[in-house]
Fold:
Amino acid sequence: MNLQFSLNHMAAASMPLTDFVALASELKISQIEIRNDIAGQAIADGISAEQVRAVTGSKRILAINALQQFNNWNQQREQEAEQLIRFAADCGARALVLCPVNIAGWEPEQTERDIKLRQALSELKGMLEYFGITGLVEPLGFPQSSLRLKQHAVEAIKAVDGEQTFRILHDTFHHHLAGEQQYFPELTGLVHISGVNNPELDTGRMQDCHRILISEADCLGNIKQLAALIKGGYQGAFSFEPFAAEVYDHPQLAAELKKSVAFIEDAVSSAITNNATHTTVA
Structure:
């Protein structure tokens, strides 16, 4: 199966932007995500949007990752949003990832969280539309996250009539952590993929540092998730976003990524074919 893959800079966090782009070219991946949270690299290092556009060249920048704590809207968040949205437009990025507050005890009542989420989306909507940028709402599955379920994000997007402005970012790691069963392929704009290979690690203890490349030892059900999204009509990219240093510092990173691509393509194809066969027989 010929899937669309993308490369998030976190997969090669030790590399300068120029080397990261070269890695994507070596892998024949034409779509990338850049970040504003890798110390000493790209945006965090003060690079201009014009420099990003020059370095990335023909690469399609799917998103800038990310506006943090977007659902705690205040003057500071508004300024951060304006800067990142303008930067995205100037460098040619298609979208801005929106990450919720991920602090234990922040606005614990669900009603208050829903109100703040809708307020933030309402404020962001006009800004994003003006610059032609999509807002990718990414629920985080951690227990302390203020937005764990895609269901709540979808309800909020519809409440502000934001279906043309916002999309869901489905992260396979966070989908597993949240224990969510629902998929929203029709509103999904991007999929982040990473794996966890330790079967003795309880879901509640999984952290970003455990996220590696997807292989046959994966414990997150990545193949099932990807197959479900594809069967539901999702036609976008699957973007590698492992956080573990053992990945981004690997001396043979390109080879490891190629192995993961081959495994995912074969496994997803088999999963879809087997499901179709079983459905036909039934």
